[in-house]
Write a structure and sequence with these properties.
Layout (H helix, E strand, L loop, with lengths): L2 H21 L7 H17 L23 E3 L8 E3 L2 H14 L5 E7 L2 E8 L2 E7 L5 E3 L2 H4 L16 E8 L2 H13 L8 H9 L4 H7 L2 E10 L7 H10 L9 E3 L2 H14 L7 E8 L2 H7 L9 E5 L5 E12 L4 E13 L2 E7 L3 H7 L6 E7 L3 E7 L24 E3 L6 E3 L5 H11 L12 H9 L16 H7 L5 H14 L4 H7 L7 H10 L3 H6 L2 H5 L6 H11 L2 H12 L22 E5 L7 H10 L3 E3 L8 E4 L5 H9 L2 E3 L1 H8 L1
Parallel strand pairs: 2-11, 19-20, 19-21, 21-22
Antiparallel strand pairs: 1-6, 3-9, 3-10, 4-5, 4-7, 7-8, 10-11, 12-13, 12-15, 13-14, 13-18, 15-16, 17-18
């Protein structure tokens, strides 16, 4: 791959993971893996400046600002630190500072894995709290921060203005409590403490923050009008005396050996701490030295963040079993000799598909190296052939389904193996669980355990049967299938409420191969009801924004199946809405007929969903990518690579004001 292509690939991958981490609070890779990508991109951009772009993720900080919360501009830009990954890099940094400065000292702190916030105090009283946002503009979460006990609302020193920066987190104990509560109500368990803390702090209901017991460590003094300090360690001690909970167990060092010893000590104990950390920060202590060092174009020169690699351990594959998913996909699962890893006991890990098994050559009885991807999901890194039993054989996914005994086939253009029996019990269980999930029909309280219980008692065979459960209420209560009367009533009420969902939720819940939430919304916006969707032909579907050949054929195949017609007949009979509420908003005005718009960046006053709805109501289409078929690109602030591509292709670019003139 040439340099330009690799740079473009890295930018695209980093932007994707930025969105998952900062805006969705749902990271898919570890910080360590993410930082490796960032470092590679920065190095390539430095070596090949001709490929530099202003909208590169290396020139941005954090995520975008959520629209639901009030925007606040930062007094001091909230910047990230330069990352280092090994002992050599730590020594190189510390020794370089020793050469440049006069007998410098270093403060080493644990890097808490949470959400950065800035706290503002006027005359000793807390007046504002802001998330990092994009580093220049954050979002006010003041009301939520008032619910965090360890944030002092009034401090003894009445400085005219004080600004401090800290990390909001949730303790492991509070995290376990929150997950236990989710289990009790049949909800989805939270992935990790960082995601839960970040998601909680962005809630619009402060009582949720109070209920989940968020906490904070303050790690930096940004502004202190009326009081001077000489060192960072001095500011931490002063903040502690003011009632702040500061960086835990920070230490002051003078040599690279001392710095590395502390980093190593923290690394050895990190999984026994009561809170999550993802690294250690090394800071020059003297504040005058910091001013002298200044910044590069992106990061301060007076600090670095050491990132711990994921913890890896050896264990043994006791067995490989097959799980069958809602689409019939067979997923091999390694059953492991239990091993303590990243704070929890790991006893199984997915092997994904036959290609992954072949590539890593994982066999039953093998000794393997395991780690947690993102410190969350256990994965097998590699096998150790020299420790393999003499009689071991390569593992091959069976050609019959372990649940129903029917034949399995491998996808023609993919790596997955599937059970082709649509009546397979395993598929039915997972299909129904998906149908009732938050992403689909969102039937609150209808967890997998209730689905399995109702199926085993014969009350549900397919998704259509969900809506006739009310007829068996007395029997279900008498047998105590899913709990007592209150639990049953709550579930039946939630089922009834779901009947009023728009059809995009229903289409999502049907579990059509390659059709997700966004594609379902597009179908709901372009067809009047489920019958129109089911009868749509290839030409109608292929012209929808971002619909490709594979997806269109999967849609046609599903809606032509006998299974669909059986299900939809039941749903109609039980009163489930099959009319598109999205298409009802379309007007007789079709001025955008035949036009395709791409929306990029942050618009001054309109939400992107709002602009999309207006375009579609006037007969136009909205696409997620720029191509020669694009009619207009509606661009806001920080428009990024889509704007650049539009300029290259000569596509007409409009701003919000021009767009509003077009729709008058």
């Amino acid at each position: 791959m040439d340099v330009k292509s690799r740079i473009e690939e890295l930018r695209k991958e980093i932007e994707y993971h930025n969105n998952k981490y900062y805006n969705e609070d749902s990271p898919e890779i570890s910080d360590y893996e993410y930082d490796k990508l960032s470092v590679e991109l920065r190095k390539l951009e430095a070596e090949y400046p001709e490929f530099s772009m202003e909208d590169s993720p290396t020139k941005k900080v954090g995520g975008t600002v959520k629209r639901e919360l009030r925007k606040v501009e930062h007094d001091v830009p909230v910047i990230s630190l330069q990352d280092v990954f090994g002992k050599e890099e730590v020594y190189e940094y510390v020794n370089k500072m020793i050469v440049e400065l006069n007998k410098p000292k270093f403060v080493v702190e644990k890097k808490i894995d949470g959400l950065s916030v800035v706290l503002r105090y006027h005359n000793g009283e807390l007046t504002e709290g802001i998330t990092r946002g994009d580093g220049v503009i954050g979002e006010s979460v003041y009301e939520n921060l008032l619910e965090i006990k360890n944030i002092p609302k009034i401090i003894p020193s009445k400085l005219p203005y004080l600004e401090v920066r800290g990390e909001v987190y949730i303790s492991n104990k509070a995290f376990e409590k929150a997950n236990k509560k989710q289990e009790e109500i049949g909800g989805k368990k939270y992935q990790n403490p960082r995601n839960l803390a970040a998601g909680t702090l962005r809630q619009l209901d402060p009582s949720i923050v109070r209920d989940r017991n968020l906490d904070i460590f303050v790690f930096n003094l940004e502004i202190s009008e009326g009081k001077e300090f000489t060192s960072h360690s001095e500011t931490l001690e002063w903040l502690k005396n003011q009632g702040f909970k500061v960086s835990p167990d920070f230490t002051v060092c003078e040599t690279a050996d001392e710095v590395w010893d502390y980093i190593s000590k923290v690394g050895n104990e990190r999984w026994n701490l009561q809170y999550a950390i993802d690294g250690a920060v090394v800071k020059v202590d003297n504040l005058e030295d910091r001013k002298k060092l200044g910044m590069t174009s992106k990061v301060p020169r007076w600090a670095v963040a050491y990132k711990y690699p994921p913890e890896q351990k050896e264990t043994i594959v006791k067995d490989i079993i097959i799980q069958v998913g809602r689409t019939g996909r067979l997923t091999p699962l390694a059953i492991l000799e239990p091993v303590r890893l990243a704070g929890t006991t790991v006893s199984k890990a997915t092997l994904h598909n036959q290609d992954v098994i072949n590539e890593k050559d994982v066999r039953i009885g093998d000794t393997v190296i395991v780690q947690k991807a993102g410190d969350i999901i256990p994965e097998v890194i590699k096998s150790i052939p020299e420790k393999r039993p003499a009689d071991s054989k390569p593992y091959v996914i069976p050609n019959i389904c372990p649940i129903c005994g029917e034949a399995t086939v491998r996808d023609e253009n993919g790596a997955d193996t599937r059970c082709i029996n649509s009546e397979c019990d395993a598929q039915a269980t997972r299909s129904i669980s998906y149908f009732v999930s938050k992403d689909a029909m969102n039937i609150v309280g209808f967890g997998k355990s209730k689905v399995e219980a109702l199926m085993s008692e014969g009350y549900i065979k397919d998704i259509g049967d969900i809506y006739q459960l009310e007829n068996y209420k007395d029997e279900i209560l008498e047998k105590n299938v899913i709990g007592r009367e209150k639990s049953v009533n709550n579930l039946l009420n939630a089922i009834n409420e779901s009947k009023n969902n728009n059809i995009d939720k229903l289409i999502t819940g049907l579990g059509i191969k390659n059709v997700g939430k966004q594609s379902a919304k597009v179908l709901a916006e372009n067809f009047a009801d489920m019958d129109e969707v089911a009868n749509a032909n290839y030409d109608q579907l292929i012209n929808l924004p971002d619909f490709g050949d594979t997806m269109v054929n999967d849609i046609i195949k599903y809606f032509r199946s006998e299974k669909y017609h059986t299900i939809i007949s039941k749903l109609k009979e039980y009163g489930v809405n099959v009319i598109s509420k999205s298409s009802e908003t379309k007007s007789d005005d079709s001025r955008f007929e035949g036009m395709t718009f791409v929306i990029t960046g942050t618009l001054p006053t309109m939400k992107r969903d709002e602009a999309s709805s207006l375009i579609q109501s006037l007969g136009g289409k909205v696409s997620g990518s720029v191509s020669k078929k694009t009619s207009y690109v509606l661009a806001g602030e920080e428009a990024g690579s889509k704007l650049t591509k539009a300029e290259t292709l000569g596509i007409t670019i409009i701003d919000e004001e021009e767009f509003k003139n077009m729709i008058k």
